[in-house]
C-alpha cells in the first residue's frame, strides 16, 4: 500500500471513530508503528489531524465536522470533569450564555437552580434541559437549525445576542491555538460565537485537550478574550502555561 493511500485510510478511520491509536493503525495496515507515526506527522503537517499521547484526533474543517452524537462518545469522563469545574465559576452571574456543543451542554446541566438565572443559548438541547427548572428563564436564539449540532445560526441569532449585555459566557471551540485563536468550521456558527463573546462581560472556554493546537476554518475569538480556560490534564502543564501567558487562567482537571 502506498503512503498516500494509507494516510487517506488513516484519516478516514480517525474521522469515523473520532480518534486513531498508533498501535491499532499499525496492526490494521500491517506496518511498523514508526511508519504510522510518519503518516500521522504528514497528516498533522497538512492540518488534518491533531496528535497527542500515542493517538490522533481529526481536525474539524470546512469540509468535515463531527456530529453532536459523536461528541457524546469521546472523552466523556474528561468532559464531565471540565463541566463540573466550569460550573464552579458561575459566581453571582444572573445571565449566562451557553454555547452549542456537548461540553457546554454538560455545564448547563450543572448551573444553579436555587436562585433566579437567565440562560441564553443557541442550542435546542440545552434550552430543553435547563427549561425544566422553575427558577431558570431560558432565551433561545432564533435562526436556522443545523442538523448535526441541533443549534441555531444566522443573522437572527447573531442580532438577538447583540441586544444583550451578558454576565458570563461558557464557550466551546472546534480548535484552539495560540497562533490562530478559537476556530470553528462553519462561518454561520462563527458569527454567533463571535457575537456571544462580544456581548459577554466574562468568558470561560471549556474544551478537552485534543482541541488545543488545532485550527479550523473560521476564527471567532482570541485566546486573550477569555478570563478562564477549563480543560483536562491531557493538556501538559508547560503548554497550559503558554496559553496562560496570553491572559486567561488555565484550569486542568
Automatic annotation (TrEMBL):
It comes from the Bacteria. Repressor of the lactose catabolism operon. Galactose-6-phosphate is the inducer. Transmembrane segments: none annotated. Gene3D superfamilies: 3.40.50.1360, Winged helix-like DNA-binding domain superfamily/Winged helix DNA-binding domain. One of its GO terms (molecular function) is DNA binding. This is Lactose phosphotransferase system repressor. PROSITE patterns: HTH_DEOR_2. Keywords: DNA-binding, Repressor, Transcription, Transcription regulation. PANTHER family: GLYCEROL-3-PHOSPHATE REGULON REPRESSOR (PTHR30363:SF4), HTH-TYPE TRANSCRIPTIONAL REGULATOR SRLR-RELATED (PTHR30363). It holds the Pfam family DeoRC. Residues 3-58 form the HTH deoR-type domain.
Amino acid at each position: 500500500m502506498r503512503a498516500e493511500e494509507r494516510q487517506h485510510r488513516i484519516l478516514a478511520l480517525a474521522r469515523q471513530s473520532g480518534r486513531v491509536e498508533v498501535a491499532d493503525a499499525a496492526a490494521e495496515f500491517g506496518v511498523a508503528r514508526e511508519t504510522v507515526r510518519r503518516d500521522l506527522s504528514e497528516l498533522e503537517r497538512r492540518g488534518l489531524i491533531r496528535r497527542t499521547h500515542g493517538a490522533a484526533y481529526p481536525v474539524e474543517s470546512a469540509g468535515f465536522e463531527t456530529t453532536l452524537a459523536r461528541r457524546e462518545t469521546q472523552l466523556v469522563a474528561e468532559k464531565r470533569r471540565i463541566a463540573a469545574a466550569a460550573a464552579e465559576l458561575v459566581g453571582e452571574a444572573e445571565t449566562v450564555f451557553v454555547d452549542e456543543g456537548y461540553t457546554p451542554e454538560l455545564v448547563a446541566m450543572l448551573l444553579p437552580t436555587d436562585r433566579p438565572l437567565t440562560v441564553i443559548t443557541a442550542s435546542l438541547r440545552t434550552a430543553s434541559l435547563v427549561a425544566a427548572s422553575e427558577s431558570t428563564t431560558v432565551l433561545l436564539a432564533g435562526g436556522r437549525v443545523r442538523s448535526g449540532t441541533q443549534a441555531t445560526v444566522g443573522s437572527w441569532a447573531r442580532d438577538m445576542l447583540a441586544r444583550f449585555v451578558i454576565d458570563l459566557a461558557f464557550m466551546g471551540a472546534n480548535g484552539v491555538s495560540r497562533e490562530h485563536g478559537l476556530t470553528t468550521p462553519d462561518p454561520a456558527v462563527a458569527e454567533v460565537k463571535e457575537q456571544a463573546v462580544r456581548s459577554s462581560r466574562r468568558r470561560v472556554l471549556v474544551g478537552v485537550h485534543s482541541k488545543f493546537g488545532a485550527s479550523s476554518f473560521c476564527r471567532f475569538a482570541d485566546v486573550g478574550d477569555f478570563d478562564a480556560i477549563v480543560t483536562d490534564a491531557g493538556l501538559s502543564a508547560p503548554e497550559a502555561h503558554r496559553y496562560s501567558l496570553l491572559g486567561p487562567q488555565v484550569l486542568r482537571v
